Write the structure tokens for this entry.
Amino acid sequence: MGVNSDLTKLVTVNSYTAGMGFAVGAILKFKHHKDNPTQVPIGQPVALVFVGAALLFLPSILDVTGSTMFGTQSCPVFIGSGTALGEDSCTWAKFTGETSGQGASQAISWQVGGQYEVGPGWFLGGALGTKTMSAQSTVGQESQRTFDGAVVVKRVRGPLYLSAALGLSSTTEQATGTLPFGNGTLTSNSNSWSAGILLRGAYQVTFDPVYLRPRLDIGVGLTNDSGTQMNGSAGTLTVDPSSSTGVQFNPMLEVGGRVDVGSAVLRPYIAAGPMYVPTNYRRISGNAFGSPYSVNAYGASLLLNGEAGVQMYANKLWDAKLEYRMLAADQYFNQSLGLRFARHF
């Protein structure tokens, strides 16, 4: 999930509630316009529809490079016969399904990557990924396609693990808003790009056959949106170009173990910790039929981040990992399930 992916989920905490409020307000305005077209211009309810849609779909507006950046952290192996973890050279592929906002949006993503030991304890890696997202609400629907990539440098020395990853992404989006009472639809296309940096530090303490591994992730992200224009029979709405930056701090404690089953080795694990994001809002502004509008979407600064999974190693060459991840806050819950295969060498 990376910094801006997590910021996406953070802002969504209250944006769904606010978006539904704008949508209900738009429906009432459309009724008033139908009853008194001279007193309530069509631009007022149309503007509310668009702002409501923007808030309901705010996750896709902010979504960036997180999953692929986190994928670069993905080649742990047991060193020897105990629970001490290290890294080695490998290639990997991962498939993930994700849902958020009480099922309001769904996403499927694919990533491939690998890393190589360039010197004792030093690793250089990279990954490429693509993500397809769809969202639907009472005021419209949206689809999105993202292509992203990341590079990472790792330093592993005994129980100490340090890494720095850089991620870039490009997103195209298509949206359709349906206006109540037969007032038509609005359609739009937009583009955005994003960049993020993820720093991770971890230290492992072993108590064979279990281990503890506290870690800290620090992320910084930048998103730049080209803005968009929505056109339809009711008129034209615009969204101004914008950019936003965010920082996240995510300490977590991982508890895991080792189970030998014949020639295979299992690594069950669970991890949890708070996520703090001090930059927790996004401003949306534009113009509706000559009338400017702007709105801020705020979210909680503190969330609960968790993950659990099991990794199976076979013949010291192959491994498969099933992983569940979640991010929770008041009125919001995001979860994903991923399956990853790796070849070690």
